[in-house]
Amino acid sequence: MSAQEQPAPLPESPSSKQAQAAPQSFWGRLDQFYIEDWHGTAPESPAPPRRGLPSPLSSPPFPNSDWSYGGSPVIGEADTNSYPLMTAINGAQSRTKVYGWISPSVNASTSAHGNVPEVDDAYANRIELNQAVLYVERLPNSVQREHVDVGYHLTALYGTDYRFTTNKGYLSSQWIDHNHQYGFDPVLEYLDVYVPKVALGMNIRVGRYISVPGIEAQLTPNNYMFSHSLLYSVDPFTDTGVLATVQLTSQWLVQAGITGGHDIALWAKGSHPSATVCASYTTASTNDNFYLCANGINDGKYAFNNLQQYDGTWYHRFSKTWHTATEAYVMYQRDVPSVGGSIVPEPNTNGATCRPGLQTCFAPEYAVVNYVNKQLSAHDFISFRSDFLNDKKGQRTGVNTKYTENTLLLSHWIGSTIQIRPEIRFDHAWDRDAYDRGTRQSQFTVASDLIFHF
């Protein structure tokens, strides 16, 4: 699984001697895991084997230890994570691992009827269960170079965040047709095949996976902050198809694949064969990473989320404790139905604010986001995010305006199984009212989530 999709690493398994002394019951082993984790007495293990460049970051406190790329596990990195549930089940002895998290949140907002286009706290002034997630996965062994290895991944998600992960054709009527507040989504289901003899290793992913480019991922432990940037709130989330990732050298990685389009199943109406091509370069010092993607490329004609996306990400590490992450993209669709025109848009999508008299028009959006992150301790970091989105024709948010948001967050870990992320955020629409059902030009929110790993 890519760093983009991986929760923060948890403590290593106990040694065999310590495992023999562990409690014999399921509940006893689970209780011991949390006690040791929260008190800092979990046994430490030697650094795992690894090929390629060293990890640039510490995780925890940051969500990932490597510069992110999507659509693949980190090639050359061993899976040594041990999780509370698997430790309780079998002492974390199996390569197939079952784990997950529960993530409730609370927010207070100047808006009364909802915080959209802000996510994940879309419902204003509420306590919500954003995500209850269960993973079943087996990562391929990409450290070895001798034989082909296979991995797989299944995800089950329940909560308010299902509306942001919904993929047309995968139980999507809950959101697209019925607008339920809570719902279930089988977010990810794919097979990984690792082929060691191609360059420094190749991974082939087949199935439904997180759309490849970007700093943020919808599954909450993988993000710097609780709420998402405007940039991420309107771009694609999951794709269904096949993607090959090749580690050419320790610094260069390339990707190519074909999908049925963004946020749509291959069998659903509106699916289009779409190409994805990406390249990632990391400097030898690991202080910089550049990741460029052309994502979901086809004729660009209007259909359900048929976005043409050109995305670039730059990570820069100033020191061991300071780093920044910047992402920019342009997206568009052609022939988008005009608001108030005779052509009806797809359910739960917006038309475009076209020039008077036009039935359809070209609808682009441009966005850029920057994170500045400072590690304070092994358990804490602060992050400041600045974000700009120009929804030129209002096709992504429903309002044709330029948006900005600024968010300040403190992340605190209790051991490596509980994370608390309070934040303050200010949003502004520069051209017209866009918040609280179009009655406000600005919005201020105070929010926090809590992530409990099991």
UniProtKB/TrEMBL annotation:
Compositional bias ranges of the Polar residues kind: 13-23
Stretches with biased composition (Pro residues): 45-63
Pfam families: BBP2 (PF07642)
InterPro entries: BBP2
Superkingdom assignment: Bacteria
Source species: Granulicella mallensis (strain ATCC BAA-1857 / DSM 23137 / MP5ACTX8)
Region (Disordered) residue spans: 1-23, 37-70
Protein's name in the database: Beta-barrel porin-2, OmpL-like. bbp2
